[in-house]
Design goal:
Helix content is about 40%, strand content about 15%. It is of the alpha/beta class and about 150 residues long. The chain has one domain: Response regulator (Rossmann fold, 3-Layer(aba) Sandwich). A five-stranded parallel beta sheet has the order 2-1-3-4-5, with helices on both faces. Helix 4 links the parallel strand 4 and strand 5. The longest helix is centred in the C-terminal third of the chain and has 18 residues. The chain is globular.
Length: about 150
């Protein structure tokens, strides 16, 4: 079983579908787990609530995190991830439609590894997501496990 898992935190069903399709088209066969709000993301990552018994590695290889999420924003999720020793080094890519400089600045200040705007055109979106997947799953050398 390939232990490299992507966690996609996305509340928009269309963006979720496009992201999954783009990763599939890039021939990335890795498992992609999807949660739809900030609270679910934290529960998944810290194995709480409905995710207390989830299968697979303790942490995903990378988190693709939207900013505008219900219940808890992506920036709040990121802040909590960086404050916990278990997830302080977890690669987090902000994948958002926001073009606000303040969102980009807050993302990096809160410890995002990357900030990527979702292109509006599907082919550009697919290419962007494919590049992200290949980089984080095949090219990047993650920190050693503690």
């Amino acid at each position: 079983m390939d232990r490299k898992v992507i966690l996609l935190v996305e509340d928009n069903p269309q963006d979720e579908m496009l992201t999954l399709r783009a990763l599939h088209r890039a021939n990335l066969a890795n498992r992609v787990d999807v949660v739809r709000d900030g609270r679910q993301a934290l529960d998944y990552l810290f194995r709480k609530g409905q995710y207390a018994e989830r299968e697979g590695p303790d942490l995903p290889t990378v988190v693709l995190l939207d900013i505008g999420l219900p219940r808890l924003s992506g920036l709040e999720v990121l802040e909590q991830l960086r404050a916990d020793i278990r997830t302080a080094l977890l690669p987090v890519v902000i994948l958002t439609s926001s073009d606000e400089d303040q969102d980009r600045l807050k993302s990096y200040k809160n410890g995002a590894n990357s900030f990527v705007r979702k292109p509006l055109d599907f082919s550009e979106f697919a290419e962007t997501v494919a590049r992200l997947g290949v980089y984080w799953l095949a090219t990047n050398d993650p920190p050693p496990e503690r």
